[in-house]
Structure formats: structure tokens, C-alpha cells
Write a structure and sequence with these properties.
Blueprint (H helix, E strand, L loop, with lengths): L4 E7 L5 H19 L3 E7 L5 E2 L8 H4 L3 H6 L4 E4 L4 E5 L6 E5 L1 E4 L10 H9 L8 H8 L1 H10 L7 E5 H6 L1 H11 L4 E5 L9 E3 L5 H11 L2 E6 L4 E10 L4 E2 L4 E2 L9 H6 L11 E3 L2 E4 L6 H17 L4 E10 L4 E8 L7 H6 L4 H20 L15
Parallel strand pairs: 1-2, 1-7
Antiparallel strand pairs: 2-3, 4-5, 5-6, 8-11, 9-10, 9-11, 12-13, 12-17, 14-16, 15-16, 17-18
């Protein structure tokens, strides 16, 4: 029996391009090949948006040794065909190589991928794909929309203001006044759509607000300003599943309140900034698994995570980040990551699910969702066009 062909798609025109490469090669491609049940095809989207595929793109050293551009210059970019599915075409004419894809495994982070754009292409191609669908990806990657949907479903969020770049530039002083009047410092200023903590600033006084907003709007067309949580413990919860969400273990990044889990902490310093004893180094720095919370509060956080997963229509896999006021005993939704960095495999492993089992389950979930949707009627015969003869 022919093995299913799985296209692992990564890279893209995103500020999180390099993180995507690490996720794809280390946490998706390698375990898929170890499973021995799939024909794994790497599909790399370069920073200029061109698509490439070659077995050598499975090797992380190609991306770290400075020879990537020379390699790509000798490769024909891919084209894609929607012929009752997704077919990758490498080269042209009689020598063109055609690869029919059975399942797509997006491992992109950030814009032009994780935000629903890539999922839209895969939906149009009518191919099963791993992870959240288009609507869920769009909502999850927009921190403002996610807060609005969560609040409408009774999930606690912190007080915030959000504005588009053109709105802010038309009257920056009025936005400063609103924030200074209604929000309590310190506040966090964030781009609405980015992950990996890029462009986020912790602002202690109103004197630094304008600069923080300028930084956020340098990366995005929409920004939000939200109150910090007092007596803070940050926790995160990876979840897999479609109709029946399965949470992993509640995880606690080991940072001090003033050293929020920024990009540098996550990726460049191995999570050592602000780290405490007792943590283990996972894909994104040092953390404690399970989180160091009273049992009742930990149970509440897991419940909020699963409730958020259902409310936003997440599927396949996602990670829900929460803020816990340990003194008040209250859990707030922070944000959702629809494609967790490195799949949070370190957490799932401690929960008893190996990396090989994790990627295999995710492919099964993708196939089950696609089969369920394929059974729906999406068109029907009418006489409508006959009137235009």
C-alpha cells in the first residue's frame, strides 16, 4: 500500500520565518519520518514568497550555514495545481515533476501562513490539512478579535483599547488620553496579529506609551493596549482535538513579572532571562510542567483553556495562553497560538504522548475533519442561469 504523501509547509513572508523552519524540521519532519508511515515532502516558502521543494530542505544545516540562497538559486520554484486536490509541480515541460499531496501539514508561524491565508489555499485545493481552519486561524491570530469572541462567551479578559494604524495616526493624543484615563499602568502594547512576542512592550508610565505604540504599529496595522495583571503567574496550555479537545499539561514559563516572555527570552537565550530553579528547557525556554499553582486554580485555568478552544472553534492543535492573578484567584485569557512553536512537543512528551505519536494524531485529526466536511452538501442544482439565455 502506498504511503500517504504529507507536505510539510514552512517558512513564509513572516517575521517568524526562522522559528517556522525550526518547528518544521525538528518537530514535524523528523518525527513523521521516524513514524515510517508517510512519504514526507518539505515545502519551503522563502522570504520573497516563492515555494520550493527538495529533500535537502529537510536538513537544518542548509538554513544555518549561510548557503541557502545559493542552493535556492539553482532550484526551480514550485507551482501548484488544484486538480481535485493539491499537486506540486517542480520544473516545466516534459521533465516537470508532479507530486500529489494527500495531507498538508502547515508549520508556518505568523502572517501569510498561520493567520489563515495558507489554510484558505488548502481549503480551495480540497486537501486535508493539520491545524485550525480558516475562521479559527483568523480569529486566533487577531488578538483583538480573540478577546471580543472570548468575552462574548463569558471568558475573562483584561481591560484594553485597540485601534487601527490610520485611526491612531489621525489623533494620537486622543488615544493616549483614553488609555491614561481608563487603564491602570503598567500596560502592555502589542501588535494585533504577530506571535512570538514580537513588537510587544511593557510600559510602566504614560511617558513611554507613544514610543511603544509606534513600535507595535511598525509591525502591524492594528495595535492594542491592555492592562497588566497583578500578582501574575503566566500559564499556557497546549491542546489537540477537533470536537473533543484534549489538553496537555498546564505549563508555566519561568520569568519574573517584569521580564515578560519576549522573543529574546523564548529563542535567543534559551529562556534563561528571569528563570528560576526547578524548570526544564522546552522548545521555548525554561518552564515548569505542571505549573506551580494551587490545584483549584490550575483546574480553573485548564477549564478556561478548553472553553476558549471550543468558543473560538479551534481544531487540530492550538495553544491557549492565560494570565493568573494568584491573589484574586482569577484566570484571564491572554492570547491564542493556532500553531504552537515546535508543537510544544516537550509538554506533550511529559503528558505521555511522544513527538511521533503527536504528529501522527494530528494527521488523523486532519483527515477526520476533512472527511466530515466532505460529507456536507455545498452545492445544488438550480434553473437560475436559464433565465439569462
Amino acid at each position: 500500500m502506498k504511503k500517504p504523501t504529507v507536505a510539510v509547509i514552512f517558512g513564509s513572508r513572516s517575521t517568524e520565518h526562522d522559528v517556522s523552519v525550526v518547528t518544521a524540521i525538528g518537530s514535524v519532519i523528523r518525527p513523521l519520518e521516524l513514524a515510517g508511515s508517510f512519504d514526507v515532502v518539505p515545502v519551503y516558502i522563502a522570504k520573497d514568497g516563492r515555494w520550493y521543494s527538495d529533500p535537502q530542505l529537510k536538513d537544518i544545516t542548509l538554513f544555518s550555514n549561510g548557503k541557502l540562497q545559493t542552493f535556492l538559486a539553482k532550484q526551480p520554484p514550485l507551482s501548484i495545481s488544484f486538480d481535485n486536490g493539491l499537486t506540486l509541480i517542480k520544473g516545466t515541460g516534459l521533465r516537470a515533476q508532479k507530486i500529489k499531496i494527500d495531507v498538508a501539514f502547515p508549520a508556518t508561524h505568523g502572517t501569510h501562513g498561520e493567520d489563515g491565508e495558507l489554510m484558505g489555499v488548502l481549503e480551495m485545493a480540497n486537501v486535508p490539512y493539520v491545524g485550525c481552519d480558516v475562521p479559527a486561524s483568523v480569529i486566533a491570530m487577531d488578538k483583538v478579535l480573540a478577546k471580543i469572541v472570548a468575552q462574548a462567551n463569558g471568558i475573562a479578559i483584561t481591560k484594553f483599547y485597540a485601534f487601527a494604524k490610520n485611526e491612531y495616526e489621525a489623533s494620537p493624543e486622543s488615544w493616549h488620553e483614553k488609555v491614561n484615563q481608563d487603564l491602570r499602568y503598567p500596560v502592555f502594547v502589542k501588535p494585533a496579529h504577530l506571535g512570538s512576542s514580537i513588537g510587544i512592550t511593557r510600559v510602566k508610565t504614560k511617558n513611554d506609551l507613544a514610543n511603544a505604540i509606534e513600535v507595535a504599529l511598525h509591525y502591524d496595522t492594528k495595535a492594542l493596549v491592555e492592562e497588566a495583571v497583578e500578582n501574575l503567574t503566566e500559564v499556557t496550555l497546549p491542546i489537540i482535538g477537533n470536537d473533543e479537545p484534549l489538553p496537555a499539561l498546564l505549563e508555566q514559563p519561568l520569568t519574573h513579572a517584569e521580564d515578560f516572555f519576549d522573543f529574546d527570552t523564548k529563542y535567543m537565550r534559551g529562556g534563561k532571562k528571569g528563570s528560576q530553579g526547578g524548570g526544564k528547557q522546552g522548545a521555548q525556554g525554561y518552564s515548569k510542567i505542571p505549573a506551580d499553582l494551587p490545584e483549584k486554580l490550575a483546574t480553573q485555568a485548564i477549564s478556561v483553556g478548553v472553553q476558549t478552544y471550543r468558543a473560538l472553534g479551534l481544531g487540530g492543535t492550538a495553544r491557549v495562553d492565560m494570565l493568573v492573578d494568584t491573589k484574586a484567584g482569577k484566570v484571564y485569557l491572554n492570547e491564542i497560538n493556532p500553531m504552537p512553536g515546535s508543537l510544544y512537543a516537550h509538554n506533550w512528551q511529559q503528558a505521555g504522548i511522544s513527538n511521533v505519536e503527536l504528529v501522527t494524531r494530528l494527521i488523523t485529526l486532519a483527515q477526520e475533519r476533512h472527511a466530515a466536511r466532505s460529507s456536507l452538501t455545498t452545492s445544488f442544482q438550480t434553473n437560475y442561469l436559464q433565465q439569462f439565455k
